[in-house]
Design brief:
- The structure is a homotetramer.
- Chain A is globular.
- Chain A is of the alpha/beta class.
- Chain A contains four helices and ten strands.
- In chain A, α2 crosses α3 (95-105).
Chain lengths: 181, 181, 181, 181
């Protein structure tokens, strides 16, 4: 039986597309199918839930409530669910805020919830989008139950994750999961 | 303190380059620096060990002995080493053979040894090279001590791994590490 | 003796870069060396003149005057110059305006002046930047003296060129140079 | 009325594909539709004629006869044809031989016949395939009647073209079309 993960899309830089009439990048639709089309994911069924397409600076409390609901809906808090993990595509600006909320609101997780995003849109060359998506899907299959931020080869466990604007990556107040003792 | 992994290159399809005089693909040198140049690995120091550049069908017993020695040298069998994991780039044809040998020969592992490769060379468009390298580096940071094959979103633990020529990926006799029970 | 062309950069969508702090695309510097690095131009010496980095909607009369001066400086109006053609990277919004000005102001051309730009920045996947640059450099070597706009496989000769916002390409009032009679 | 060109595919390095079972590059089918899918060609109707898929070292006299026939069929030797030019994708090893044959055998050309190829397959990163195809299609629209080899920003007119194995490009005994006098 293949492992099954739920992939929730919310927008963010990772999914921004270019409008050649206005010359602007913005969130219009999810790019997750094109991204997955460039990866080979074997032995895992990825169920896509297109929740919203928003810059994460524009997310409202209600939007975040819907994300929490979607995590619950994925059955990741239920022993009877076939779902073994959740991946959430999210803008980096408020990813940590959403992660903290899921950490507080969703109890009894039986699998990992992994948030990720990108500093450069998938549609741009030299984007970190595919790397981070690859890592997040992989993490959703191997990490123990909990809420995580995964990007740039690093795992950060909630609570205590934040965006480091200067270093252009995520950091955590506590040591990374995988650091040697 | 950043985590440290050792990355051993041996050749294989993943590192094959095109010779525009002969029109052939072959192993001439490692491409690992160019591959890493397309990834952002934060919080991890990757130490590269260029061991050999060979099609894995051409590996001799002596070559495999050198790979086993390199794994030991990485200190992954020693509590005093700062190395938290090993990644090995390897041709897919005999990757499983090398993995089984490491599994039998190297005891007392204190971190994961992760073998990976690719079905399409890194130098080709739509290659699985960067995905598999991304996953292998990530796995080297989060898996428990043991010998693994990582590719296409899957983790296979030695012993019992083999190449599935028809499905063009690796499979294992026992359930994947992360499969739901 | 190799042919010599002068390549003048002025900015425009083709040269816009992404700022991962602000999430915006804008003209900061020329990308011409990176673009040329992806092409093989043999038998032609390309002399680069970095003139300005501006969205073409922001070009002033003075800016356009500098472009006209640069075309003259390239010696394309002089029999004694070794320069056999000029390429100008330019934003598409006012490319036609600049082309008309060069057509009116620079007399006695001994080689072609070729303006080009792109609808998607070079830094984005599926950009038309390299195609249009390739065509413009090629055109600068084979067209007869005159002022042209070259993009998307088409040659339009000034005067009478305009941007077609709906079809997202350039058009001309008179038949294209190469149309069958 | 849009200009119309005929694009004849014969194989060669430009169209080689990778077989991940054997690990070899060879000519199996044309890639012309995928190549054209990465270009924007406006105002020109490209009619594709898939003639053969062969390494040009394997072309027989009969194969070359079929290429000559296809050029004639394109109507490029006829005033009544709507075709304004022909592009031929060809292996570089014997491209010059085929070009010389067309030059000798097809008289009364009313448009240009442009042969091109690549040193790296289209399926590889950093290939010269798209550049050369772009130039060849452009050349087919602007050059005067004659038989040409176009690649790497250069135009070589038959007779007198050859492959320079050392410099990895084409050269001609007489000065390039566009060289300054």
């Amino acid at each position: 039986m293949p492992r099954r993960i739920t992939l929730i899309t919310t927008g963010g830089t990772i999914e921004k597309t270019y409008d050649d009439l206005t010359g602007e990048l913005s969130n219009r639709k999810t790019l997750i199918r094109r991204m997955l089309g460039e990866l080979r994911i074997e032995g895992t069924e990825v169920q896509i839930l297109e929740l919203m397409s928003k810059d994460s600076l524009d997310l409202t409390d209600e939007d975040r409530g819907r994300i929490v609901d979607a995590v619950r809906l994925a059955g990741i808090d239920s022993q009877t669910s076939g779902c073994s993990g959740v991946v959430i595509l999210h803008g980096t600006d408020t990813l940590a805020e959403t992660g903290e909320l899921i950490y507080r609101e969703v109890s009894g997780l039986v699998g990992p919830v992994v948030l990720t995003g990108a500093w450069r849109p998938f549609e741009m060359k030299r984007s970190d989008a595919l790397q981070n998506l690859t890592e997040a899907i992989f993490a959703a299959g191997v990490l123990e139950p909990g809420v995580y931020c995964v990007a740039h080869g690093q795992v950060h466990r909630f609570p205590g994750v934040s965006k480091d604007r200067e270093r252009k990556t995520f950091v955590s107040r506590r040591p990374a999961l995988s650091a040697p003792d």
